[in-house]
Write a structure and sequence with these properties.
alpha/beta, Rossmann fold, two-stranded antiparallel ribbon, 4 helices, 5-formyltetrahydrofolate cyclo-ligase
């Protein structure tokens, strides 16, 4: 089985596990993320606008926004790195690609911490996303400019023992789940 087929098989199983966890979620997972982010008050942060069955970082992002700049990703085009536009809890939003909402007015900055959505992860920091490579390209660029902390945010049910990874896949520095914080 080639690498793309392996990734597709892992994604299918991980999407099912994520959906099952999402259906049971009562909204408390953001508390662990908030406690982690409390140690980085004021550091420029990027979160994300959850789509489909992604775990919701918005409460933790709103708390962080009271202490420093928070942004969300904006897709600039296929095979291009993401840009991050300033987000505020009650700010005006518009529709972005793939159904993720983005700020109405672009105000871009580079974050030093990126909360990364994912489909599957390993305890060693491996991450499988949707397959577009957006976060891999983006993290490579940010890390090439300065230290950037990549925090995966996911349900514990999305953990897998191994992932079919490529040399261009960026690893996570930490994973925060609905039940634990995993330091890589």
């Amino acid at each position: 089985m080639d690498l793309n087929a392996q990734k597709a098989a892992v994604r299918k199983a991980a999407f099912a596990a994520r959906k099952a966890a999402f259906d049971l979620d009562r909204g408390g997972a953001s508390g662990l993320l908030s406690s982690v982010l409390a140690g980085y008050r004021g550091v420029p942060l990027a979160g994300y606008m959850p789509i489909r069955s992604e775990i919701d970082p918005l409460p933790a992002m709103a708390e962080a926004a009271a202490h420093g700049p928070v942004s969300v990703p904006v897709i600039m085009g296929e095979a291009r790195p993401l840009m991050f536009s300033r987000w505020t809890p009650n700010g005006a939003l518009r529709e972005g690609p793939f159904g993720a909402r983005v700020p109405e007015i672009d105000d871009f900055f580079d974050p030093e911490i990126v909360i990364v959505p994912l489909v599957a992860f390993t305890r060693a920091g491996g991450r499988l996303g949707y397959g577009g490579g957006f976060y891999d390209r983006t993290l490579a660029g940010l890390r090439g400019a300065r230290a950037t902390l990549a925090i995966g945010f996911a349900y514990g049910a999305q953990e897998v023992a191994t992932l079919p990874l490529e040399p261009t896949d960026q690893t996570l520095d930490m994973i925060v789940t609905d039940t634990e914080v995993i330091e890589v």
